[in-house]
Amino acid sequence: MPATCVIGLQWGDEAKGKIVDLLTEQHDVVVRYQGGSNAGHTVVTAGQTYKLSLIPSGIFRPHVQCVVATGVVVNPASLLDEIDGLTKRGVAVGKNLSVSDRAHVIFPWHIEEDRLLDRCADGEAIGTTMRGIGPCYRDKVGRSFAVRLGDMYRHDFRDRVDSIVAAKNRLLAGMDEQPGREPLNAAKIYAQYNGYAERLKPYVADTTAYLLDAVEAGRKLLFEGAQGSLLDVDHGTFPFVTSSNSSGVGVSAGSGVPGRYITKVIGIVKAYTTRVGGGPFPTEQDNAIGQHIRDVGNEYGTVTRRPRRCGWFDAVAARYTARLGGVDVLAVMLLDVLSELPELNICVAYELDGRRIDRFPSHVDDLRRVKPVYEAMPGWQQKITGVRQRADLPPKARAYLDRLSSLLGRPIEIVSVGPDREQTILA
Ligand code: GDP
Ligand code: IMO
Ligand code: MG
Predict the structure, then answer these.
(1) Does ligand 1 come within 6 angstroms of the Cβ of 387?
(2) 102 has a pLDDT exceeding 70
(3) b/e for 35-71, b at 16 or more Cβ within 10 A?
(4) Does 321 score more than 90 pLDDT?
């Protein structure tokens, strides 16, 4: 009855998609359990690059059931686009995909609210992906204006859209600093979403019941985290976070599968650190080194194409999230991106108000003030994209990996040296 989780230990884009695709071969069911189309997961196989937002990265193996579970917020238009895009490219999407009838639905008002409210209490921008994720989760928790996928098939769906649209029009008019906005049109939105509901019908299911049956029957589950643990709404760099539990703690809440079935947690890290959007980032290199990493690693957002902020590996942050996630083993990704740099830095501690600390601060104001304490390591300065055995890596690259492993207190099970499925070093 093993269930494996893949979670990002940084601020997202750790290459979770690649690892999930790789591990899918050994699993029966792949499950997304939080987030929505703010996620952009890349799978590269046989020279083809696929970008996935809602559909689990297991979709390329036909024997595997892909589940979009209850904790995900679903924009039906994005989901249908993704299904169509994959189908056009010859990837079968049919009975192998199911979507929870309990998952909450993203509507146009959520996207408008995201645009109007992309800021924290002091007015600083969060820099969201503008996909309506936060507003939809807010309505889920608030209950009054929430619609779940299963609600779209009920007799009162039309009435519900009417009453929510009336309330949202009042709220949006109050929020908008530029008056004269076009009000939301309930009839139009209903017609549109009714159309989506018809097309999505074959996929909508009670995924909680399905997953409980599957796990009790001993089928192998693989949970695919979206975002990264430092973006977790409870444990991340609040308020510069996403609106779900994107660390390991979200798996059970979002899927309905009890934590006791989880037998292995794989923490994914980049060999350096990136972040998209606002918020503190102690090891950021807003300089030629950061630009070099961005160029070599093609560090531009999968969803929004925004340039990602780049910096050195932050072992204080990653150790915190590895512990938080109960991580058993690590996968270190994009090691090849560092190959040309003569010297690498690893942040091994922070200095706060003149004192050395190794604890990750709970408040962003403290995180903003910390100074990273770096340990320098020599770069290996040779190409490694063709390496397939750990022993064939340059000794300096192995030393770098060993240091990450010892700082995080976990073994490294997977090393990635390029985007392709094949460019992977196992154990
Ligand atoms: P995810 O959101 O965690 O799935 O990650 P993204 O797909 O947003 O970003 C990871 C990017 O790195 C994608 O463009 C991948 O194709 C690419 N990638 C994955 N592994 C490697 C690697 O080992 N080396 C390089 N150079 N690129 C990689
Ligand atoms: P994957 O799954 C990186 C970031 C946004 C913003 C913050 C809040 O591809 O790793 P949101 O739209 O979620 O309300 O934005 O979270 N963010 C991500 N950053 N990777 C992601 O997903 C992200 N999903 C959201 O940039 O800073
Ligand atoms: Mg991504």
Answers:
(1) no
(2) yes
(3) bbbbbbbbbbeeeeebebbbbbbbbbeeebbbbbbbb
(4) yes
